[in-house]
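@here heads up, posting the sequence + SMILES for the flavin-adenine dinucleotide run so it's all in one place. Ping me if the SMILES looks off, I pulled it from an old spreadsheet.
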Amino acid sequence: MTRKEFVRLCGVLGVGLPLQSVFSSCKDDSISTNPGKVLIIGAGAAGLSTAYLLNQRGIEFQILEASNAHGGRMKRTLDFANFPIPLGAEWLHVERGIFDEIVNDSSVDIGIKTTPYDLENDYGLYDGEELSIEDLGFESDQKFVNATWFDFFEQYIVPSVKDRIAYNKVIETIDYSGEQISVSAAGEQFTADKVIVTVPVKILQNESINFIPELPSNKIDAIRDVTVWDGCKAFIEFSEKFYPAIVEFRIQPRSAGQKLYYDASYGQNTNQNIVGLFAVGTGAQPYIQLSDEELIEYILAELDELSDGKASETYVKHIFQNWNAEPFANGAYVYDSENWRRVRTLGESVGDKLYFAGDAYTTGDDWGSVHTAARSAKRAVSEMLG
Ligand SMILES: Cc1cc2nc3c(=O)[nH]c(=O)nc-3n(C[C@H](O)[C@H](O)[C@H](O)COP(=O)(O)OP(=O)(O)OC[C@H]3O[C@@H](n4cnc5c(N)ncnc54)[C@H](O)[C@@H]3O)c2cc1C
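bot reply: prediction finished. Complex structure tokens:
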């Protein structure tokens, strides 16, 4: 079993992993070298964490973000329910100590609440014909309570870096052939001594950014060959609660994807009955091809099958998030069974100019989550500072 498979077994429905000692437990201001001006491409978990660490060390930087908002795949909405709805990252896959690691300052108290699932919660497994329900029976990932991963970043990371985010800057070219690096977005030019690229790997796979000179051939191969899962989420409100905490749909082979319907109101201070749908890989494919009208019919038919028609009877409203259709994501994340060496190649820096941070640019021990994106930021900053 690879480290990644182990991590995934402990994943969505598994035990929390112990923390790696990648982050120091307190703020570290020492800089061995001053890197000059740093440009960070992308303001998701990795870009924000990178900026935050540079800010702690007094290093000059700017973030260039393609969209009109920060957060990337941690996007959430406050408009659907009376608690925040996580349209991307939802669960905490590791222990709560990751919050302290990311904040990297032991004087800060983290007020974000999380809750594990109760071991006696109903856990359903649907094989396409029969639904079997039993107790969850094992420790699981944690849910944020009336908050999300986005809210954690918004509260603890974003305030110290927000004024250095330039929005609506879709980076098209990174020219690192000269002494200074030149980065361009729709006719606008930015220069820097170092660049940290944090865009989703699918953006590089689609060749949306042109590197001059070309990236090293092993990096190009890794970008081309890595598998990025399709992905979507939906949230559906019902006037009654008729469903268990989690129903997993069996996908064969397991490595092809995941699909869960789950109680999204679990642990929240709310009286609203909201069911979530999380679907990646082949699990997502039926949904991302449907119109909104077809989509809700499809979802209600699936839930009616499991509930003797209760879903259609009690349906109130829904919201859908298609990650494949997001112009600056184009998919969900690198699939769980990816070759770890390929992921490690994605994370390698190029010369002493270009650095990569993000959920796909790790050391190959884990990938595809907010905590891995944040940890990769720490690694990229350490490499850059020597
Ligand atoms: C459906 C779904 C469910 C998930 N569930 C969980 C979960 O429960 N728990 C968990 O930990 N993780 C989960 N994840 C994974 C998690 O969301 C990501 O791993 C993490 O948010 C990635 O952060 P990042 O900074 O690497 O990338 P991103 O968040 O994608 O940030 C990259 C940024 O780069 C910007 N960008 C893109 N192209 C350009 C360009 N050309 N120029 C400038 N900027 C650009 C983007 O707009 C974006 O803001 C989930 C993801 C999905 C899609």
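MO: The longest helix spans residues 292-307.
MO: One more: The chain has two domains: 1-112+147-227+336-386, 115-139+229-332.
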